[in-house]
Design brief:
The longest helix has 31 residues. The chain has 409 residues and is an alpha/beta fold. The relative contact order is 0.12. Helix 2 crosses helix 10, helix 10 runs antiparallel to helix 11 and helix 10 runs antiparallel to helix 14. The strands form two sheets. It has a seven-stranded mixed β-sheet, with helices on both faces. Helix content is 54%, strand content 11%. About 7% of the residues have low confidence.
C-alpha cells in the first residue's frame, strides 16, 4: 500500500538510514529553484519592507533577518525562509545619490517572474522608478506588473482615518469617488498617468497604507486584501498558496506559523511527485516529508523518536481510510480528462504529492499540539486533519489538471 511504503521511506530518512534525500539544504535548494521571484522596485522609504512584512507575517524587526545578499546592492528574501514558496528580490532604493542601478537591473531581469513597484503616493518625483520599469518592460513586455501606491494617510485631512469600506478600484473610477479625499484622488491619478505609455499590458494599481498600530490608523494593514488579490491575479500560484496558508483563522499560533512551511514543503514534494508517485517519486517525497516533520516538530519543541513516529503514523492510519481518500481524489481528477498524457500525468502526480505533504503536515500539527499539552491526540482528530489537508491539496490539483486539459496542443 502506498501510504505504508511512504511511512517506511520517511522513517528511513528521518532516523538516518538514508540521509541524503532528506538533507534540509537540498530541500531548501530545490524550493529556491522552483519558487517564483517577485522583483521589488521603488525609492528608499516607499514602503517595500512594510509590504514584505505584511505579506509574510514577519514583524518589521525580523524582516532583515530573512534577507540573503545576492549582489552588493540586492538581496533575496525567502518566504518561508526554510523552504520558500516565494522569493522577494529587493534592490537598493532608486534615485539614491551615487547609485547607478544599471548592473542590478541587468542581473535582476534574469531572475524575476513578476514586478512589484512601490511608490509613496505623496511623492510626485517618480522618474527613476518609471524609467526602470520602462526599460524592463521593453525587454519583457509580458511580465506582470503590480504598482502599490503607499502612504495614503499622508494626504488625509487632519483627524480623519481610513474610509470604510475600502473604496479603491485601481481604475479611473477612483478619480470620481467622493469617499476618497480630493487631494489623494489627484495624487493617485497623477502617478497612474505616468505609466500611460508603458510597453505591454497596463499595470494593476493597488492603493495601500501599512502603518504601525501606534500610528493610530485602523486597520494598520489597510488594503492588504486588495494587494493579495492583485498579486494572485498577476500570476504566480505561490501567492494563492501563501495567502491560503496565512488567512486561515487559527487559535494555535504554532500551527499558524507552521502552515506556510507545510505549503512550502508541499511545493517541493510536487516537484518530486512529477514522476510517478508509486515508483521513483516515493523517495523524493519521503525525503521532503522527513525534513518537513523535523521542521514542524521544532515549532512545538519536539524531537521525533522512532517510537513517537510510529505512534503518529498509526494515528494517521496506514490503512483503508487514508488510502480511500487518496483513491477518491484520483478518481475525481481522472473524470476531468478522457486520456492522460505525459504532461497531465505529471500534473496529477505533482498534485497528489503536494496533497499528501499538506495532509501529513496538518495531521502532525494536531498530534504535536496534543503532545505539548501532555495529552494523547485522538485518532479521529488526527485523521480528520490529514483528510482535510489532503482534500485541500487535491482540490488545487484538480484546478490545474482542468486548466491543463483545456490547453491547446
Amino acid at each position: 500500500m502506498l501510504l505504508n511504503r511512504l511511512w517506511k521511506a520517511t522513517s528511513g530518512v528521518l532516523f538516518g538510514e538514508h540521509g541524503v534525500p532528506g538533507d534540509p539544504n537540498n530541500v531548501r535548494q530545490r524550493a529556491q529553484d522552483a519558487a517564483p521571484v517577485v522583483w521589488l522596485l521603488g525609492k528608499t522609504g516607499a514602503g517595500k519592507t512594510a509590504i514584505i512584512s505584511a505579506l509574510t507575517g514577519d514583524t518589521r524587526a525580523e524582516v532583515g533577518e530573512g534577507f540573503a545578499p545576492c549582489t552588493r546592492t540586492a538581496a533575496f528574501y525567502d518566504v518561508p525562509a526554510q523552504v520558500p514558496l516565494l522569493r522577494f528580490l529587493d534592490t537598493r532604493g532608486l534615485g539614491e545619490a551615487a547609485y547607478d542601478p544599471a548592473k542590478d537591473i541587468a542581473w535582476c531581469e534574469g531572475q524575476s517572474h513578476l514586478l512589484l513597484a512601490v511608490m509613496q503616493v505623496s511623492d510626485p518625483s517618480q522618474d527613476a522608478t518609471v524609467r526602470v520599469l520602462q526599460m524592463a518592460r521593453r525587454r519583457h513586455p509580458d511580465w506582470p506588473l503590480v504598482i502599490a501606491q503607499t502612504g495614503l494617510h499622508r494626504l488625509y485631512s487632519s483627524g480623519t482615518g481610513h474610509p470604510d469600506p475600502y473604496p479603491y478600484s485601481g481604475g479611473s473610477e477612483d478619480l470620481f469617488n467622493s469617499a476618497i479625499p480630493h487631494g489623494l484622488r489627484r495624487a493617485l491619478a497623477y502617478q497612474r498617468e505616468l505609466f500611460a505609455n508603458l510597453p505591454g499590458p497596463p499595470p494593476s494599481f493597488v492603493a495601500i497604507d501599512f502603518t504601525l498600530p501606534e500610528d493610530g490608523y485602523a486597520p494598520p494593514e489597510f488594503g492588504l486584501e486588495a494587494l493579495w488579490r492583485a498579486l494572485e491575479a498577476a500570476g504566480p500560484k505561490a501567492f494563492e498558496a501563501l495567502h491560503r496558508a496565512r488567512a486561515d483563522a487559527e487559535n494555535d499560533q504554532r500551527r499558524a506559523k507552521a502552515r506556510p512551511l507545510i505549503y512550502g514543503y508541499g511545493a517541493v514534494s510536487a516537484g518530486a511527485g512529477a514522476v510517478p508517485l508509486p515508483l521513483v517519486g516515493v523517495g523524493g517525497v519521503a525525503g521532503t516529508l522527513a525534513v518537513m516533520l523535523r521542521t514542524v516538530a521544532g515549532q512545538y519543541g519536539f524531537v521525533w523518536t522512532p517510537g513517537a513516529f510510529a505512534q503518529f503514523s498509526g494515528a494517521v492510519g496506514g490503512g483503508a481510510l487514508a488510502w480511500w481518500v487518496v483513491r477518491y481524489g484520483f478518481r475525481e481528477m481522472l473524470k476531468l480528462i478522457p486520456v492522460i498524457g505525459t504532461g497531465l500525468a505529471g500534473v496529477l502526480n505533482a498534485g497528489a504529492a503536494f496533497a499528501m505533504t499538506v495532509g501529513v503536515g496538518e495531521a502532525a500539527c494536531v498530534w504535536l499540539g496534543y503532545w505539548r499539552r501532555g495529552l494523547t491526540a485522538p485518532t479521529d482528530e488526527v485523521r480528520r486533519a490529514f483528510a482535510e489537508g489532503l482534500a485541500a491539496g487535491l482540490r488545487q490539483a484538480k484546478g490545474r489538471i482542468d486548466k491543463a486539459s483545456r490547453a491547446p496542443g
